[in-house]
Amino acid sequence: FRRVLFRSAPRRWAAALVVVGLAACVNTEVRGDGNGYYAWVASAVVDHDLDFRNQYQHGNRLFLRWFDDGAGGYSTARITRTGHIDNQWSVGTAALWTPWFLVAHAIVRVRGLDPMDGYAPLYRRACALGSFFYALAALWLGVSAARRFGVSPRVAVISAIVVCGATPLLVYAWLLPFYAHAPGEIGRAHV
């Protein structure tokens, strides 16, 4: 057992360094559909409401065109019966980001590091890391499930690496973490 443990330790350290390096460089820009997903948690925690007007103001130009009426306001097609701006993106991703967002919110409140608008770098970094780690957890669950079905550890890990390379999981976990794909993997892997 000791030989196997020590022989595989350099590989584990190398894998850990890769994970830490990727986590340190995760993209924190909220863009596209990510604006809609992220607005749920930012609005609920910071504003204590579900009126997304101020959250959508943080959106990139392409996202804002979806709501624009051409005169600098919101399209009437995007206004709900309650007078709020609609949010067609699901709330599940925001629910998974909530613990990460709350940690960032607590740090911001206690230390006064950033504005408490939900879009300061610390908030975005926390949620982006949440997406990244949910994707890693999904891969780990996949490896664990394969092992329970009798797949060798080597084949299970190689399969996880293939999943990273042959699917857009790494793209959504690292480059586009504010989309629903990476956090959603934890639900699919759990099933």
Please give a handful of descriptors for the protein shown.
disordered N terminus; mainly alpha; 191 residues; single chain; 65% helix
Describe the structure.
The chain is 65% helix and 0% strand. With 191 residues, the protein is mainly α. α6 runs parallel beside α9 and α8 packs across α9. The N terminus is likely disordered.
Quick summary of this structure?
This protein has 191 residues and is mainly α. 65% of the residues lie in helices and 0% in strands. The chain is built from 9 helices and no strands.
Shape: elongated
Total beta strands: 0
Number of helices: 9
Provide the structure class.
mainly alpha
H/E topology pattern: HHHHHHHHH
- Kindly state the mean pLDDT as a whole number? 87
How far apart are the termini? 32 Å
Report low-confidence residues grouped into runs of 5 or more: 1-6
Largest sheet: none
Radius of gyration: 20 Å
Strand content: under 5%
Proportion in helices? 55-70%
